[in-house]
Amino acid sequence: MIESDRELSSIMQELWDSDVNRLQPGKDYRISLQGKAAHSMPLEDLNDGAGSPLFTFVDETIFKKETFLAFISLLDNYVSDTGEPEIVTPEEVAENHKFLDCIIQSPTMKIAHKYLVEKNLSPKNETKFKEQLYRVWFELYARKGASKPDSSGFEHVFVGETRGGRTVIGFHNWIQLYLQEKMGHVDYKGYSVDAHSPQPDENKHILALQFSWKDGIKPKGSIFVGVSPEFEIALYTVCFLSSPNERVKVQFSFYDVEIVCHHHNEKHIGTTYPVLLKYRKPAQ
């Protein structure tokens, strides 16, 4: 493991350990993996490897916690189709600021901020740091083929977008997945594995899966399950600001993970998500 990745692993472990709002699998939530997803093309021919929803139970009292509440309020602020310009209302801007205000006060985000300041990657001043976070996550930009600003890092990663009505892009968040599945907008089609990926199980916090959303399909997506919004924003922000190579391998808890983080114009997050490389079983 190269030195920079070792250092990032150390900070990721701190972020993980400080995530007091993380849900416990089997207790706070339960998922049902069912069958393996098909990977045949064309997309409309994909068979459903799962007859039932992914989530069988989530203790929704967690959604009353401040950071979760502020996060969920943002999920209905976007038009999913790329190419459709986003109109951001003053109310939505206020919701974005409220969310950042909430997570900046969390232990996880404080650790991330301290690390980024030490590396001269973020301003020490909290207000200026919040402005940096706003630019990285919420500032609109035009995705490929769009003439007007139609996307943001937050929309792509946490809410999801559709391209041409047929393909789902982004959408790497378990809370959005759970809420959309509960409303009947998401159809889980099974888990994704290949020769190099570890077999998933229902107690791991990282999952590769396939699902349809609205009229589009996500052939393969990878998400953290059960973690808090502040953990994801902290982890992805650290990777975005400290790793120009867009793929960083880190180890924390029982996971060897590659964090994919594509930059857009160097100022914004294009996409970011975890890929589970290896699972180190806890000692009995």
UniProtKB/TrEMBL annotation:
InterPro entries attached here?
ENDOU, EndoU-like, EndoU_C
Q: Does the keyword Lyase apply?
A: yes
Q: List the cofactors.
A: Mn(2+)
Per UniProt, the keywords (alphabetical) are: Endonuclease, Hydrolase, Lyase, Manganese, Metal-binding, Nuclease, RNA-binding
Reply yes or no: does the keyword Cell membrane apply. Answer: no
State the Gene Ontology terms under molecular function. hydrolase activity; lyase activity; metal ion binding; RNA binding; RNA endonuclease activity
Q: Which residues form the EndoU domain?
A: 4-278
Q: What is its EC number?
A: 4.6.1.-
Could you list the residue ranges forming a coiled coil in this record? Answer: none
Describe the reaction catalysed, as an equation.
Answer: ribonucleotidyl-uridine-RNA = a 5'-end dephospho-uridine-RNA + a 3'-end 2',3'-cyclophospho-ribonucleotide-RNA
Please report which protein family the annotation says this sequence is part of.
Answer: Belongs to the ENDOU family.
The UniProt subunit note reads as follows:
Monomer.
PANTHER family the UniProt entry points to = PLACENTAL PROTEIN 11-RELATED, URIDYLATE-SPECIFIC ENDORIBONUCLEASE B
What name has this protein been given in UniProt?
Uridylate-specific endoribonuclease
Q: Lineage from the top down?
A: Eukaryota, Metazoa, Chordata, Craniata, Vertebrata
Q: Which gene encodes it?
A: endou2
